[in-house]
């Protein structure tokens, strides 16, 4: 009984933590770009639920996760307000925005993959849905704050999500426990993304023969 409940509990916890971290990312962006309180809350919400909402719409999951469970909105509100208070009265932490974004990407990519996997979709759809869940919220945040989205920049972003989800699926396929596969997938994504932030890792550039 406990065994069958574990993946569902882990999925829910990943979703809640991912929502909180992406809400912090959105609120920090709003504070950095000089938005007001309402703008900060709106950007935090868009960042936190944008990817998951798009995933649920494409997978025809209704009601959408944050409508079905209002605790997601409470988590967004609390995380956004706390991070905005921090940025208003305390010095900003170095790389805080990029670290929050990297953790949100890792958590949401794996939780989004689990949602698609639970729906019985093939591995390629699982990878696509997980990557979209992790990356779309940050992309919407950057577009709303008039920045070039991280996913379109040269450093590793969506490719980190893809790599982590593939590792997660491979570990599940060889019989590793779900919790260990989840943890490893999250760490792969987080490690690749933070490597890009700290050491400038990036994918090879394409060069035209002309």
Automatic annotation (TrEMBL):
Residues 13-86, 99-172 form the Glycine transporter domain. InterPro entries: Gly_transporter. Pfam families: Gly_transporter. It comes from the Bacteria. Keywords: Cell membrane, Membrane, Transmembrane, Transmembrane helix. It is a multi-pass membrane protein. It is found in: Cell membrane. The chain crosses the membrane at residues 9-31, 37-58, 70-89, 156-174, 181-201. Belongs to the UPF0126 family. This is Trimeric intracellular cation channel family protein.
């Amino acid at each position: 009984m406990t065994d069958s409940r574990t993946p569902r509990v882990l999925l829910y916890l990943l979703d809640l933590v991912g929502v909180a971290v992406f809400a912090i990312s959105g609120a920090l962006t709003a504070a950095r770009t000089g938005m007001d309180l309402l703008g900060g809350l709106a950007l935090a919400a868009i960042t936190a639920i944008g990817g998951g909402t798009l995933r649920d719409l494409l997978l025809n999951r209704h009601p959408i996760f944050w409508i079905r469970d209002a605790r997601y909105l409470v988590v967004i509100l609390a995380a956004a307000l706390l991070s905005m208070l921090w940025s208003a009265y305390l010095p900003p932490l170095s790389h805080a925005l990029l670290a929050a974004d990297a953790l949100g990407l890792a958590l949401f990519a794996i939780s989004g993959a689990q949602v698609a996997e639970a729906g019985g979709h093939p591995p390629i759809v699982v990878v696509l849905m997980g990557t979209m869940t992790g990356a779309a919220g940050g992309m919407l945040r950057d577009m709303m704050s008039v920045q070039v989205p991280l996913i379109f920049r040269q450093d590793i972003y969506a490719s980190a999500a893809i790599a982590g989800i593939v590792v997660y699926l491979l570990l599940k396929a060889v019989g590793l426990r779900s919790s260990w596969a989840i943890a490893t997938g999250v760490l792969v994504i987080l490690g690749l993304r933070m490597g890009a932030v700290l050491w400038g890792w990036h994918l090879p550039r394409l060069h035209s023969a002309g």
